[in-house]
Amino acid sequence: MELCTQCPRGCKVDRVLGKSGFCGVPEAFLVARAALHPWEEPFLSGRRGSGTIFFCGCNLQCVFCQNREISRGKTGREITADALADVMLRLRDAGAHNINLVTPSHYALQLVPVLEKVKPSLGIPVIYNCGGYEKVETLRRLYGLVDIYLPDFKYYSSALAQRYSGAADYPTVAFDALAEMLRQQPTPIFDGEEMMTRGVVVRHLVLPGARSDSISLLNALAERFGSKAFLLSLMSQYTPDFAFDCEDPALHRRLTTFEYESVLKKAEALGFEGCIQGRSSASSSYTPDFYEKSFL
């Protein structure tokens, strides 16, 4: 950790001494919220909720981020590795269907010893819920510790990735990362309650003005991996509420029904399976309250 290169940014800063790179956080775990969350995919939240742990900071910091309150690394509570392990166990004891590590990319290597310690007694799946911008070498360190990979796949176009996330290499990086995730968890598996216990779920948020990019991405995913290797979560929840300082006018409006349904039709034609969102999800009211009572 003395020169951090665990994500594709490769900032090479000394986070142990409190310095921060693009992600905006030091080496210590900075957590905003840990709670039972009912608004993940139905096969992840179930009846009791997903045991979400929201880490502060982010290696993408998209201009439209709905969690920008914490993704910029300006808030949160610093906790130790032992305390984090205890939070996971308490979420399990509260009935969580799984432990859902949200935006963990910049803490991946620090999470390895925590998961090695807690996983033998945890008894529920561990979810790695990320933006898809992952370093393959880092993902390999997580082998055997993550049961479900839940990456975003945000863009097919390098230009769009650069414009909205400052990461022109995002498509190439995300394809390689997804290949590694599928190597580790090649088959979606469910239990008797129809809860997912292993596998990969790829999330894609359809953005206003980017319908063609979404369709190109679906074509590319089907061509490289097929349509049955992972589940697809096609999201329509984009809201301009969080893009107030973005200069791109395309992000200043909501997604149209035509835009979302045309992408959905392409996904169905390609044979993808998974879940979709109702248009009511395009609301800032679904953003978690990071100040309400949690397990921290």
Provide an overview of this structure.
The chain has 296 residues and is of the alpha/beta class. It has helices at 42-45, 68-71, 81-93, 108-122, 136-141, 158-165, 170-184, 211-225, 257-270; strands at residues 29-37, 50-55, 77-79, 99-102, 126-130, 148-151, 189-190, 196-205, 231-235, 274-276. Strands 1, 2, 3, 4, 5, 6, 7, 8, 9 and 10 form a ten-stranded mixed β-sheet that branches. Helix 4 links the parallel strand 4 (99-102) and strand 5 (126-130). Helix 3 (81-93) packs across helix 4 (108-122) and helix 8 (211-225) packs parallel to helix 9. The mean pLDDT is 94.
Write a brief caption for the model.
With 296 residues, this protein is an alpha/beta fold. It has helices at 42-45, 68-71, 81-93, 108-122, 136-141, 158-165, 170-184, 211-225, 257-270; strands at 29-37, 50-55, 77-79, 99-102, 126-130, 148-151, 189-190, 196-205, 231-235, 274-276. Strands 1, 2, 3, 4, 5, 6, 7, 8, 9 and 10 form a ten-stranded mixed sheet that branches.
